[in-house]
Amino acid sequence: MILILIGAFAYVLSKITRLDTSLSTVDGVIRETHIYSGIDELTYRTFLALIQLAKEYRTRVKLSQTYLEKALKVLNDIPLYTSPVDVEVMDALAGISYRLGYEFERLLVKEALNQRVEFTPKYI
To answer: In 20-86, where does DSSP find H-type helix?
Structure first.
């Protein structure tokens, strides 16, 4: 009887201490980038592929961070395909890029805490 009680307590404690790592906020920020997809479709698809890899490998926080950095670099390159370079688009994408980096790294910090691994964020 005591073993069942201890087991139930350990299960409940593990569920309480585990941090939420859902992607809803990150997905919302990614959706904001869609209006810029028409500037250069290939670059935008590259961004989406890289951010998808970052999302898929989020349990491997350092690998996910690498894909995130590459995705954000590609996202920031999109305004360079306008002629002449549109500063307003560049500023808007820079803001979205910063928020995406911030929100995604918050998720990675939570994942690292859940796994008890070391993680050094770059955007937070």
So the answer is: 24-32, 41-56, 61-77
Per-residue pLDDT of 36-57, as tens digits, reads 999 999 999 999 999 999 999 9
| CA-only gyration radius of the chain, Å | 19
116-123 contacts, C-beta under 8 A, 24 or more apart: 117/61, 119/61, 119/62, 119/65, 121/65, 122/65, 122/69, 123/98
What tens digit of pLDDT does each residue of 48-82 get? 999 999 999 999 999 999 999 999 999 999 999 99
CB count, 10 Å around CB of 101? 21
Q: The dihedral of CA 92, 109, 24, 57: what is its sign? A: positive
Alpha-carbon distances of 11 from 4, 17, 37, 116, rounded to whole Å: 11, 10, 45, 18
- Please give the model's pTM, rounded to 2 decimal places: 0.82
* Segment (H or E) for 114: helix 87-115
